[in-house]
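Researcher: Let's do a round of design. I'm pasting the structure tokens now; please hold your answer until I've finished.
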């Protein structure tokens, strides 16, 4: 359910307000789990600061980062219309982070009572965001996806390791490091020509 803000599919402001107003504020250390793959997931959160990665191992056992959530974005593990109670991912803090957290039961009660029809819209938005992410992964260059990530969070290199960013982009760590160096060289060349963009 991360990347919903990136794709701007539905208005999540009512849900954000509910979680922020009613949620328990919790701090997460770097690498601490919000929820764990295949285990019961009974809560939903709103990121107040920091960021979280949605990941799971691939067929070789390598961890793949499927999605990200940053400030004002929602974290939660369910992916079905019935709000399945088992997590489809590991959701892990990428740095020291804070989130407002409510129970899934309280959230679904609020949605069904106050936001008629929102449950289906929300589930459709989650599915659409993953579909668009899949299209971007197959059809857009790693450079363009990295630049989009930087627009979303300019200081991402201080919050995620090179390995994690490379996983999110779907490329090898060494390829990412070379790509970032090349893009930085291009920015330095632009700066020498009078542009004022900051380095990547």
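Researcher: That's everything. Go ahead.
Model: Designed sequence:
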């Amino acid at each position: 359910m991360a990347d919903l803000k990136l794709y701007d599919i539905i208005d999540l402001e009512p849900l954000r307000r509910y979680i922020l107003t009613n949620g328990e504020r919790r701090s997460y250390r770097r690498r601490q789990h919000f929820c764990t793959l295949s285990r019961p997931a009974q809560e939903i959160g709103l990121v107040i600061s920091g960021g979280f990665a949605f990941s799971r191992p691939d067929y070789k056992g390598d961890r793949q980062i499927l999605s990200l959530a940053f400030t004002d974005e929602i974290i939660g593990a369910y992916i079905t219309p019935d709000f399945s109670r088992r997590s489809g991912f590991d959701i892990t803090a990428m740095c020291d982070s804070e989130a407002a957290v409510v129970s899934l039961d309280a959230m679904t009660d609020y949605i069904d009572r106050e936001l008629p029809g929102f449950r289906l819209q929300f589930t459709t938005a989650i599915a659409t965001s993953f579909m668009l992410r899949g299209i971007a992964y197959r059809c857009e260059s790693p450079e363009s996806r990295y630049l989009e990530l930087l627009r979303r969070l300019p200081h991402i290199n201080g919050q995620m390791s090179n390995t994690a960013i490379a996983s999110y982009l779907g490329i090898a760590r060494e390829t990412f490091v070379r790509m970032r160096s090349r893009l930085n060289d291009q920015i330095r060349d632009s700066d020498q020509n009078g542009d004022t963009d900051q380095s990547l």
